[in-house]
Amino acid sequence: MASNPVWVAAALMVVAGFSSFAAGEKAVPCYFIFGDSLADNGNNNWLQTVAKVDYSPYGVDFRRGATGRFTNGRNIVDFFAEYLGFENYIPPFATATIIDTLSGLNYGSGSAGILDETGAQLRLYVAGARKIGVFALGQIGCVPFAIRRYGTNGSASGCAEALNDAAVLFNVQLKSAIDQLQATLPGAQFVYIGSGSDMLMTVRRKDPTTLSGLKALEVLDSPCCTVEAESGQCVPDQPSCPDRSRYVFWDWFHPTEALNSLTAAAAFEAVRPIVAHSSSVGERSMIRLAAAVQAS
């Protein structure tokens, strides 16, 4: 029996302007998310870790406040859920119910992925995952922490270019691995999401031919909140900058909702072709996939 297609997004890095494919109708049956703090929407609240942001001013622009998202509002996977037509954002695995499983789960976890990646993609494929988007690594040399820690050595970009060069090398190998999986797993559709990974450099260049929202992002290297020197996270209960739409970064590591919106908008174009013709998926298939994820 042919496997039903299931959407899986791997948010490895860390987007508003798209409507869903049809009003009131999801473009895909379910949406599973894997990644780090750029995708985390509450999993770390339940873990013994210092990488935890369930306090103000995180979430100052999110309708439910500080939920554990490492930004002031929505993150990139939230925007993707909107673009795909989901009524609600994908819930964190840590608090999800069996019913939630039918629409997907978010396994993103700040500082590290919850899952061991080794072999996980093959188990997901066997369980029914067929549409998999993988984000390229972004320009990590342009985050405030990297600039503060390593300096720019006078680079024209104003970033720590040695780290950006390392990210480029990583992405070359990542693309090769994705191509290999595409060639060896029948029926699977892998998408390497490179568009969006260079958004930080695009913002710095202020290219007038790119997204119009770039013009508003004027503060490139400074965080919007008061930052703890050791962790790089926002100091609890301290006020943030008044005009958050002007800032690229929320804390020393994580982008603001404004940059997330632009990044997701660019990145979503890469996955449009594989979501345009998704088939329905039965409850058993989705539960089987969720079980495979939890066993990975």
TrEMBL record:
GO terms for biological process: lipid catabolic process. GO terms for cellular component: extracellular region. GO terms for molecular function: hydrolase activity, acting on ester bonds. Residues 1-24 form the signal peptide. It holds the Pfam family Lipase_GDSL. It comes from Linum tenue. It is found in: Secreted. Belongs to the 'GDSL' lipolytic enzyme family. Keywords: Hydrolase, Lipid degradation, Lipid metabolism, Secreted, Signal. This is GDSL esterase/lipase. InterPro entries: GDSL, GDSL_esterase/lipase, SGNH_hydro_sf. The keyword Ribosomal protein does not apply. The keyword Hydrolase applies.
